[in-house]
Write a structure and sequence with these properties.
The structure holds two protein chains of two kinds. Chain A is an all-alpha fold. In chain A, about 55% of the residues lie in helices and about 0% in strands. The termini of chain A are far apart. Chain B starts with a strand and ends with a strand. The chains are: A mainly alpha, B alpha/beta.
């Protein structure tokens, strides 16, 4: 069963791309979802807003799948919990 | 010709920096770096409006317009052209700008939405208008012919110069002041670039394997154009002949460039100037240092020039003056014309490791003494709009 984080990320992608939630799975690649570079930065923007995080450019460039995005966000959120004060970032 | 940029406030400072491969890219000074993911830009360092304008005049001109006016003054003085009452109606002014007075608009938004003042500066409208530079140049020099501004993002200045060139060639006007100006360093606009994720975290490394994106620049550059016969008749110093202009649209994607569209613009410029690829010895590339542009531009040059692509020298001077958007083509036109006039090709600075996808002779890091017959200057814009100028040496 998908966890809450996974559901929220998929919902953000669906809303941003104007596609049904059901068309996205944790194993979908951005290529399969027809997400190009411009769509990609729009999704990053939406995800940053949704989770109040900041995703560095280098980390963003490496993302190719929904799973990578979910795991990246999970890491960012966990590091934020352990280190409140500092800006959230991960490589 | 006149130019103000991160490489200095006039043509000679610009040229000295270019041929020494000296970059004007540094930590940005006019914005709070804590609030932005990238740190470096190519600002016009140490610019003081009051050195060029009376306080009242400066308050009516956004910085982008000031840069255009400053460059036009230098260009007109350098040209020695006398703008007589008979001449003034027969001269055009065509300028390029991508975002006009956006910094003024940004200040207004801060006043309204952050400081809750409920009012903005009453000069906001005349300062925002993208024709601010063109209008002020007209007023200051009494030029009353066709005067307008072209906005095609990063190709704006090349489109402007091409239009002015064609107006002269078609006999609509006798001379023109043309180029572009831009001032990008406002907080709101920089945040928009940050969100695009195309800005380099360090510096601008066109055609290098390690390139990580562009570095924003600002400034203005203007050229005085007239017919070759008129310039020769009055004994003017002629930097180069503007021989051809070509433009095209990719009809492909709003931000991803297409090599086909760029190659067609290059071919159109050659055709317009009656030039063969073998005559082209230098290209001032668009060369933004984004992963996509430089590889696509390499392919476009190969498509358009064929075997000559292996002989032509190519450099991106954006590695030194940054990407000045709507002014870029004008700054690079000045660099290209000076390269033809002085027989020295400016380098691609900050070059590190060759990229197989950018396998051209990119004049890495050191200028090259070489007199070439003809040169191209490329501009390719977001929105897929391409504009290429072709110059011929008279040396």
């Amino acid at each position: 069963m998908p966890d809450d984080l996974e559901k929220r990320v998929i919902a953000v992608i669906a809303a941003t791309q104007h596609i049904p939630v059901e068309s996205i799975t944790i194993d979908s690649t951005f290529e399969e979802l027809k997400i190009d570079s411009l769509d990609g930065i729009n999704i990053l923007f939406a995800v940053e807003n949704e989770f109040s995080i900041s995703i560095p450019d280098d980390a963003a460039k490496a993302l190719r799948t929904v799973r990578q995005m979910v795991e990246g966000i999970r890491t960012l959120l966990e590091s934020a919990k352990g280190d409140t004060g500092a800006p959230v970032a991960a490589q | 010709m006149g130019v103000i940029s991160a490489l200095g406030n006039n043509r000679e400072e610009f040229w000295t920096a270019l041929i020494n491969g000296r970059s004007g890219i540094r930590a940005m000074q006019r914005v709070d770096l804590k609030e932005i993911r990238f740190q470096n830009g190519a600002e016009v360092w140490g610019y003081d409006p009051l050195r060029y304008f009376e306080a009242k005049q400066a308050s009516l001109l956004d910085r982008f317009a000031q840069y255009g006016v400053v460059a036009a003054r230098e260009a007109i003085e350098d040209s020695g052209l006398v703008i007589s009452s008979a001449m003034k109606d027969r001269m055009a002014i065509v300028t390029g700008s991508c975002v006009g007075g956006q910094a003024t608009e940004d200040e207004g938004f801060v006043s309204l939405y952050k400081n809750n003042t409920g009012r903005v500066n009453p000069f906001t409208i005349p300062k925002i208008m993208a024709n601010g530079a063109a209008s002020r140049i007209s007023l200051e020099h009494g030029i009353t012919g066709p005067t307008y501004t072209v906005a095609t993002a990063c190709s704006s200045a090349n489109h402007a110069i091409g239009q002015a060139f064609w107006m002269i060639r078609n006999g609509q006007v006798e001379a023109a002041i043309t180029g572009g100006s831009e001032a990008v360093f406002s907080f709101g606009f920089l945040k928009a670039w940050e969100a695009m994720r195309v800005i380099s975290p360090d510096t601008c490394r066109p055609f290098s394997k390690e390139r990580k994106g562009l570095i924003l620049g600002e400034g203005g550059a203007m050229l005085v154009l007239e017919t070759l016969e008129a310039a020769q008749a009055r004994g003017a110093r002629i930097y180069a002949e503007l021989a051809g202009f070509g433009m095209s649209s990719d009809a492909h994607h709003v931000t991803q460039p297409s090599s086909d569209g760029a190659a067609r613009a290059i071919a159109c410029a050659l055709n317009d100037g009656g030039l063969r690829p073998e005559q082209i010895g230098y290209i001032n590339a668009h060369g933004t240092a984004t992963p996509a542009n430089d590889a696509t531009e390499t392919l476009a040059i190969r498509t358009a020039l064929g075997p000559q692509a292996d002989r032509v020298a190519v450099s991106s001077t954006k590695s030194m003056h940054g990407h000045a958007l709507g002014a870029a083509g004008a700054i690079e036109a000045v660099a290209t014309a000076l390269a033809l006039h002085r027989g020295i090709l400016p380098p691609t600075a900050n070059y590190t490791t060759p990229d197989p996808a950018c396998d051209l002779d990119v004049i890495p890091n050191a200028a090259r003494a070489l007199q070439v017959e003809c040169a191209l200057s490329n501009s390719f814009a977001f929105g897929g709009l391409n504009a290429v100028l072709a110059f011929r040496s008279l040396g």
